[in-house]
Amino acid sequence: MNALRATNKELRDAVSRIKKHDISFSSARLSMTPIEKLDHRICEIHKKYDDLQLEARSKESKLKALKDQLDELKKDGECVKANIQDSPYAKVR
């Protein structure tokens, strides 16, 4: 019987320590909630920033390709204009 009482007391002490630990852990978690919210918001902002940077780089490369295409068209236009001016048919008119 004494052994059962001793075991019971040890179990109650262990349960008490666990409850105290859970309460202190819960209170610590509640006090961290605003920081966790800010951390989460910062992560979202970083992700959005990274997405916007990727989109900007994509658009810049597309713009560069369009500028190159425009330059080629200008050169082609100048060649066509020069050929038209040098054409004997253009002189007749």
Structural summary, described in words:
With 93 residues, this protein is mainly alpha-helical. The longest helix is centred in the middle third of the chain and has 85 residues. The protein has one domain. The model has no long low-confidence stretch (mean pLDDT 83).
Short summary:
By secondary structure, the chain is an all-alpha fold.
From the structure above, extract its key features:
single chain; 93 residues; mainly alpha; 97% helix
SSE layout and pairings?
Layout: H1 2-86, H2 88-92
Separation, N- and C-terminal Cα atoms: 126 Å
Helix content: over 70%
Helix-strand pattern, N to C? HH
Structural class: mainly alpha
- The total of helices stands at 2
Mean pLDDT over all positions: 83
Number of domains: 1
